């Protein structure tokens, strides 16, 4: 029996050792790329937040400083011009034959104010843009102004054909002027004021939206900036430990540049918050208030002439004068005589001009206003004793001069407020111009530094 020897089983093939080093080598550049991508995304988020803040602030400054804000000022001037036109016609009609050239001066000023009102309407029409509702309101004012001018022309013609004593025009003249002044007071002035209100609402809404958004954007810049700095620092620490090298100068530069970009963005956003607040509250609001106060004051002096011109409505015009006086500087009083006595002794004023007349720089306005009220009291005292001619002379002389002085002082305050408004808008826009100039270079520079800091390490694995 033959025995076949059993050959030994072949040895099992040896398994190759896993390429630990090669796999590890492949994971390092992958991790570096991931960290670099995260840092780049954080930087993009930072720059996006800064750009959003600049855009938001720019839109707010544009609306307040270049769009709706100037439109409010233009329509406020329109209100003043319209009220002055009606006051001047009342002055002309209350004059007697011996006017000393005042009639010609009043009519010349009337033509100036009529031209200024038309220009203000054209400017408001242009600033209205595509707002059809506002354009229709402006067109309505233009149409109404045409009807008013026709009535005024008729009243002036009838007045020139009559010879009457000062303060005693014929009933025909008075009837036509009543139609004209009612049209102005009940239709044109409310429409002009509505234009101001509409534009003012846009300004207030824009400021509220911008002022509410910018702090949120500022917080987003802080969060995105800290995230970007954290990513850059972690990337540097990882590269330093993994490659046993000191920190790379390029990444250090990128980190410092990122910190600088974040600080610059926050600075611009904060400055624009401050500039917007200054432009709105210390500039725009005061300019609008003072423009409105000038218009009310001008309407007041028209009520003085209408008080002398229209005996049947004299009590109504006196009450309107008191009401407008209290709107400007409020003092508790039940009659005009009591108001004019109390306002001379008052030390603290409310009303429209109260907040605007705080400080020594506004004292000339207050002094001129008090002299104007004194002159009005003298005029009414003469009228009360039946000396209408003397009252008219005081109205066209002392009262008008006192009002002109008061209005001039008010204009000086308004010009200072307008300067504050324009300066704040300009400074805010300059800050944004600097941001838009620097931001692209900062983005490109940091991106280059990040690439220079990472690329040499990645090349070691090629």
From TrEMBL:
<keyword id="KW-0472">Membrane</keyword>
<feature type="region of interest" description="Disordered">
    <location>
        <begin position="1"/>
        <end position="24"/>
    </location>
</feature>
<keyword id="KW-0812">Transmembrane</keyword>
<feature type="transmembrane region" description="Helical">
    <location>
        <begin position="435"/>
        <end position="455"/>
    </location>
</feature>
<protein>
    <recommendedName>
        <fullName>Secreted protein</fullName>
    </recommendedName>
</protein>
<feature type="transmembrane region" description="Helical">
    <location>
        <begin position="216"/>
        <end position="235"/>
    </location>
</feature>
<feature type="transmembrane region" description="Helical">
    <location>
        <begin position="32"/>
        <end position="52"/>
    </location>
</feature>
<feature type="transmembrane region" description="Helical">
    <location>
        <begin position="247"/>
        <end position="269"/>
    </location>
</feature>
<keyword id="KW-1133">Transmembrane helix</keyword>
């Amino acid at each position: 029996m033959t025995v076949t020897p059993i050959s030994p089983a072949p040895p099992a093939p040896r398994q190759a050792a896993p390429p630990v080093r090669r796999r590890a080598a492949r994971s390092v550049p992958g991790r570096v790329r991931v960290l670099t991508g995260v840092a780049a995304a954080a930087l993009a988020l930072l720059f996006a937040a800064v750009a959003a803040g600049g855009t938001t602030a720019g839109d707010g400054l544009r609306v307040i400083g270049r769009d709706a804000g100037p439109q409010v000022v233009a329509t406020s001037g329109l209100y003043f011009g319209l009220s002055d036109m009606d006051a001047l016609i009342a002055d002309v009609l209350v004059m007697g034959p011996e006017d000393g050239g005042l009639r010609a001066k009043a009519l010349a000023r009337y033509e100036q104010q009529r031209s200024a009102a038309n220009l203000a309407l054209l400017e408001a029409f242009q600033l209205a843009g595509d707002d059809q509702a506002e354009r229709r309101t402006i067109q309505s004012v233009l149409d109404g102004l045409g009807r008013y001018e026709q009535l005024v022309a008729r009243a002036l013609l009838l007045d020139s054909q009559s010879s009457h004593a000062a303060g005693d025009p014929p009933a025909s003249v008075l009837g036509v002027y009543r139609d004209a002044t009612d049209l102005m007071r009940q239709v044109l002035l409310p429409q002009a004021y509505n234009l101001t209100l509409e534009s003012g609402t846009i300004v207030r809404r824009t400021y509220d939206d911008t002022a509410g958004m910018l702090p949120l954007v500022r917080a987003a810049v802080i969060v995105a900036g800290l995230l970007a700095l954290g990513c850059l620092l972690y990337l540097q620490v990882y590269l330093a430990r993994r490659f046993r090298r000191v920190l790379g100068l390029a990444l250090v530069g990128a980190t410092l540049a990122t910190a600088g970009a974040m600080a610059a963005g926050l600075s611009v956003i904060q400055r624009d918050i401050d500039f917007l607040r200054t432009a709105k509250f210390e500039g725009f609001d005061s300019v609008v208030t003072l423009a409105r106060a000038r218009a009310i004051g001008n309407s007041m002096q028209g009520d003085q002439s209408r008080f002398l011109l229209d005996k049947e409505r004299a009590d109504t015009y006196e009450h309107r004068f008191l009401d407008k006086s209290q709107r400007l500087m409020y003092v508790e009083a039940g009659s005009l005589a009591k108001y004019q006595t109390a306002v001379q002794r008052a030390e603290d004023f409310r009303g429209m001009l109260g907040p605007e007349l705080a400080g020594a720089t506004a004292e000339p306005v207050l002094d001129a206003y008090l002299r104007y009220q004194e002159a009005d009291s003298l005029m009414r005292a003469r009228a009360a004793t039946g000396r209408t001619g003397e009252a008219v002379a005081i109205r066209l002389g002392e009262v008008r001069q006192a009002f002109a002085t008061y209005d001039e002082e008010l204009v000086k305050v308004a010009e200072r407020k307008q300067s504050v408004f324009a300066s704040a808008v300009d400074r805010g826009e300059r800050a944004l111009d600097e941001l838009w100039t620097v931001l692209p270079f900062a983005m490109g520079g940091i991106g280059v530094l990040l690439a220079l800091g990472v690329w040499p390490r990645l090349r070691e694995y090629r």
